[in-house]
């Protein structure tokens, strides 16, 4: 155990009374405290929980120039008995460090990551909104802080976690454009890291898709841009003739924690599921044969995001209406149920705070 003492400085006056839990815009309201730790001389020091506030930055901070910045996204919920719950925090700790290794950044000890999240959520537990589907969104992130101009890994970093109450995510079914020009990631690139630059690099494609009337893009890869990767910032699942298929991870696809749980839940229920290459041609053929039953995105924020239509060049593929779908809604209900203790935690995924 490498846990060190976390120093805590409490806010003088909580802002909680000023927040309307029935009207929570996503990502704009932040709770009272945040966690901060600094890496210098080869170790993480001064772990602290302090009042939420601005961070100062040197103009030559390396993150601003060479982009060493990574993050995680997770949620704390409340059990029906009132206990705060975390879902697989250790998986997020591991993925942060996977991202850190790829971006030549310092790794943060995984047990300290879970401890920091636990203490922060315990302190701001009243910020977890009570309504079904609501949560306290947690944002761990790390960035390079060397005050230096020149391309090399920074030798100092800051690791922070802040939290934000979010309401239920009513994702309406989305219309997708099969992206044939822009590329999110390739094997050997940085797609498997939650690196900030990946998201900046995706914005132009999504903007152009929006201008053309689509909600999101379906990212493609492979030698002829036919292999399906992800949908927007979610992993993608297809149900074709009773089989659930998701692209196998190949170094370009982010290894989603929701994706991993979905595969396990499907296996537990005896529903056929495979991780393999899936091409757009296979999806077109399934659509023509009437065997394309569902397409949905999987991720922490919305859990499941149903896809209603897919535009591939001049071909429009329609997916059956959400009311006729079984797999996506079942998976969402399962995760939402786990988060409030209504579904049995058979794999020990929940951590009580
Ligand atoms: C690019 C990308 N793919 C997939 C996901 C889904 O991952 P998770 O289920 O861990 O939230 C995310 C969100 O973290 C993402 O940013």
Automatic annotation (TrEMBL):
InterPro entries xref list: Aminotrans_IV, Aminotrans_IV_CS, Aminotransferase-like, B_amino_transII, BCAT-like_C, BCAT-like_N, BCAT_family
Cofactor(s), by name: pyridoxal 5'-phosphate
E.C. code: 2.6.1.42
Top enzyme class: transferase
Catalytic activity: L-valine + 2-oxoglutarate = 3-methyl-2-oxobutanoate + L-glutamate; L-isoleucine + 2-oxoglutarate = (S)-3-methyl-2-oxopentanoate + L-glutamate; L-leucine + 2-oxoglutarate = 4-methyl-2-oxopentanoate + L-glutamate
Keywords carried by this UniProt record: Amino-acid biosynthesis, Aminotransferase, Branched-chain amino acid biosynthesis, Pyridoxal phosphate, Transferase
PROSITE patterns: AA_TRANSFER_CLASS_4
Full protein name: Branched-chain-amino-acid aminotransferase
Species in which this protein is naturally found: Neolewinella maritima
